[in-house]
Amino acid sequence: AQKVTQAQTEISVVEKEDVTLDCVYETRDTTYYLFWYKQPPSGELVFLIRRNSFDEQNEISGRYSWNFQKSTSSFNFTITASQVVDSAVYFCALSTSGTYKYIFGTGTRLKVLA
Amino acid sequence: ETGVTQTPRHLVMGMTNKKSLKCEQHLGHNAMYWYKQSAKKPLELMFVYNFKEQTENNSVPSRFSPECPNSSHLFLHLHTLQPEDSALYLCASSQVEGTYEQYFGPGTRLTVT
Average pLDDT of A35-60? Predict the structure, then answer.
């Protein structure tokens, strides 16, 4: 069975704090893709990153960084020095090779307080 | 226009009305998707079209009827809806092969009265 778990339903931080959003996935496939999306209040899901199962390198993009660990089946997302504009719901998703369907997690609502 | 657009952005309809949601993608993709997002529920995949052919119907009630006339346009025809169908309906597109990033539209907020 394939599954994505985002155990944190809601997180509140004060501006400039660092915050990590957890994502744990389950799949028996050896080739798969993991994604993070941001959904601001406007509603549109914004693509943030894709990682394939053969690339365990961590990635940093500005204040965003992602930690992919196959040993723990996790793909965590860290925002450094959070800002109010980071307030949104963040979704982790899994796609396995040969299919273009996503399995989404339930999302984590991040509130960054000024 | 760029990316994925959806119209209307907001829709209020009675249970006996018939309406349609429209999605258009300007990304040259060949797969399009309808999702339903209800409060406190995970994103639900409703339909998938691959090169204009429907390849997925996730047990969606027949009061939702999709149409994909070409790879750039996707419609969701609505009739005899129920109040529990009130939700945000999101359209997305992607390439069928490769790395599968899906790009989403802004959604249509539907309220059924």
Answer: 90
